[in-house]
Amino acid sequence: MASPLSFGDCFLICKLCWKLAQAFTSGRNSAPAEFREVENQLYSLSAALDGLQNVRGNDVATSHAEKKIDDRWSTVDKILLNCRETLEHLEAVVKKYAEVDQVRDMSLPRIKRWSGDISRNWKKVAWTKEKGDLTALRSQIAAHTNSLSLVLATITNSQTGRIKNQVEQSSKMLREIYEWYKENLEGTATAVLQEKRPAAEWTTTTPPSPHFELHVHTTQGLQLVCPRVSLNTHVLLADDTTQRQEPFPNPFICCCCQPQGSLGGHASSVKAFQVTHLTFPARIGGPEMQWTVEKLVDTSVSRLVSIRIKRVPASFVAEFEESFIRPLVLRAAQEEVLQGGDGSMTVYLQPGTEAADPCILSIAADLDKVQPLVDSVTFANGQRSYRRECVQSVSMLQYSSLVRQTVGSAHSSIPFLKPLPHGEICITFEQADDDTQGPDDVMQVLVLLKHDTSPKLNQGNATLKLENVLCDSFSSSPENDGTGFRPMDVTFQLTTAKAAAELHQHVEEMRMELFVLKLVRPEEGEEDILHLQATHVQIENEVFIPAAELTILRHAESGKSRMIIATRDKCIILSQSLPYDFFSPPDHATDTGAVEKSSPAPTWLVQLEEGGRRRVYRFECGLRGLRFRNAQSNRALELARQAISGGLPYRPA
């Protein structure tokens, strides 16, 4: 290395990684399924580079004398140089095998499509400078990401105090990380192309998209249109509203057995559904992964319809939401912002903020059957109560806030949907036809539902009571609208005990949705202090994950830590509260690298079964014995403990 990498060099490496990740995203529709893992890993590497770039920028302010003592960056530079070589080689591959469109932004080339040559023969391509295959490339990117994450944790913790022994300790840690990193890279060099394979083995075709059920809403209820529908791989729902074209393409294709070129049976019915500017999707609350898509056009009858999508394979749920649901949601949000309206039930603008980030409907309970059976609603606060009849509608919804997240460089950001920590029960009352309607009569009430809200069902009286929930009311008088949220007891009176039990079930399902969101995402006050990629994760005899992302979160105020282990497709998500001594040296370790810690905490496991049904398991005493089947991952976790422990104050469990 002729000279150390500068802050600008780090910025350029980060920008290159982000640009390559965007390239894989743009070319997704014409790429083999194996490319998706590379795309995901490039985004993870970009985030690690971005974090390191920020730390390195802050470190520039340190004194020149201290820089002489602190030789930590020389080790980091070696990792960054190897990372740059990997990315530059990949950039050359992208330029060779992709059609690039530079019209929109000359600084961020975007792939229009991969060439047909790479789609057929991608296994022949030398993806790494050592002529490694796609598996070798993924392994190299994972090694870069893990090492940079460990480096970031080490340097961040050492910056809590500028003491000589801290600097020396972090330098020692960085040298250990680099040795581990070199061993990882040497391991990836073994996965090279085998040139003597028959040419026929190299030619592959992209497998068909997984299929699901498609139903349409009719006056008689849901009607099955096709049991084997898949997403049309040629549909590209552009996030940029300036790129929309008419007519919108058909998003679905029928996968049932039909003669070649024939549209007999229900294939023509599937083909008739097309997306419009008004189309909006939302997931239906409950253990079954289902989505409703409102306001598609059925071209066979020239009218807007609503459809229901069921039985999406578990391994395809994340892909389905990313490729189809998310673009539709973002388009609807852009439409609302451009129109400058007050919003609707699907998209509304948050009041009281200059940016006015829109809130977008994410989950909706299916209350079509139980809603007409709500006879009245009573609101009570202390000794005062207010009973309202003539219920027009009841809806139970959960929203996400659309924010922009800077990734890769200061000039690149992506829209990010951040789920709100509560649900909303919106109760609308009918307006009286006569003069008995007063200006202060409540016309609509908004009830906030949280994961720890405790509903009380009384089947004998056919009532459901929500105690101490926040409510806001809106009347027919504009000056009395939105008086502010106040705690109240809300009691729903239904016509039958069965209806009360059904409403109770929907409330419980929405509470579970909110609880799962709390488990799988950082809570308010939690910060991401470590992110690693690991293979062959095993916890006792209960859980085995072939490839996973491991994230450790720490609460800024309480100091409590939590570990999330998730598969890429989010079929398995494990949330484990960590004892305070988790980052201290282990009490003892087995020959396989298992770590046994004291004071086990509860563990939650969220799992999607095939067919799209979600199950949630609780392990009261936690899952002990976290281990990896390969030594490199075990060593990475041990290095992570050492890197983090230096910056954490000890707290008794």
Helix content: 25-40%
Low-confidence stretches: 60-69, 191-206, 236-247, 259-263, 588-596, 648-653
Specify the structural class: alpha+beta
| Count of individual helical segments | 12
The tally of beta strands, per DSSP, is: 28
Rg from alpha-carbon coordinates? 28 Å
The major pleated sheet works out as: 17 strands, mixed
Distance N terminus to C terminus? 46 Å
Instruction: Determine the strand fraction and express it as a percent band.
Output: 25-35%
Mean pLDDT: 77
Q: Please give the domain count.
A: 4
Shape: globular
Describe the structure.
It is globular and about 80 Å long. It has a 17-stranded mixed sheet that branches. A 7-stranded antiparallel sheet has the order 27-26-23-22-21-20-28. The longest helix is centred in the N-terminal third of the chain and has 26 residues, at 72-97. The protein is built from 12 helices and 28 strands. By secondary structure, it is an alpha+beta fold. It has 4 domains: 7-202, no CATH class; 212-339; 365-400 and 417-520, Roll (PH-domain like); 526-645, PH-domain like.
Topology, please?
Blueprint: H1 7-26, H2 35-59, H3 64-69, H4 72-97, E1 98-101, E2 110-114, H5 116-121, H6 134-158, H7 164-188, H8 199-202, E3 212-218, E4 221-231, E5 252-254, H9 267-271, E6 273-274, E7 280-284, E8 290-298, E9 303-310, H10 317-339, E10 347-349, E11 358-364, E12 374-381, E13 384-388, E14 391-406, E15 413-429, E16 442-449, E17 455-458, E18 463-475, E19 486-494, H11 497-520, E20 526-539, E21 543-555, E22 561-566, E23 572-578, E24 588-589, E25 595-596, E26 603-609, E27 613-619, E28 626-628, H12 631-645
Parallel strand pairs: 7-11
Antiparallel strand pairs: 1-2, 3-4, 3-9, 4-5, 6-8, 7-8, 8-9, 10-11, 11-14, 12-13, 12-19, 14-15, 15-16, 16-18, 17-18, 18-19, 20-21, 20-28, 21-22, 22-23, 23-26, 24-25, 26-27
